[in-house]
Amino acid sequence: MKTNIFLMKKSTTTTKLSSQSTNNIYINKAQDINKYLIGAKTGEINVYDTTRKQKKNQLKKIRVNNHINRTGKNPLISNKKNKIKFYDITNIYQKTPKGITTTCLGERYEKEHKKFKNPSTIICHVVFILKSKGYKKIKGWLIPSL
Fold it and tell me: 117 φ, ψ to 5°?
């Protein structure tokens, strides 16, 4: 089964991307994803984040091939003194030739999104968590805000 994870509020745009055959999840904090992920880790997961409106891609969704984490946070670090596990994220997203690299800004998105070509909020944190839980078929998408 395909799962869509939306890092934004439900809207007309997100409804168009959904279908009855997909599991649609809406979250606003990366850690909230842990409440929803149960079952097979072999299904396709599409993670949708917001980006600024761009002239040539005004309302088209944009495929993500990679990200730069400029949030200042790592969702896998905890206060526990456990052994640190390294996750290879070089191929965290299923790539496409037209995919882009997004810059994740987290809480600084509203203030700094105009400084970056393809800004996003927390897609990097959500895919980190998905990868750490064993999910493999992860596609990243940006939806230009209206």
Answer: -70, -45
Pairwise CA distance, residues 124 & 142, whole Å = 12
Q: What are phi and psi of 18, to 5 degrees?
A: -95, 160
Q: How far apart are CA 32 and CA 10, in angstroms?
A: 16
**Distance, CA of 103 to CA of 99 (rounded, Å):** 13
Tokens representing residue 111 in the block: 């203030």
Span 106-118, pLDDT tens digits: 999 999 999 999 9
Structure tokens at 13: 């745009």
Residue 67 structure tokens:
């990200």
Residues in contact with 142: Cβ distance below 8 Å, sequence separation at least 6, in sequence order: 48, 49, 50, 51, 61, 62, 64, 100, 102, 118, 120, 123
What's the pTM? 0.86
Rounded CA-CA distance 134/131 in Å is 5
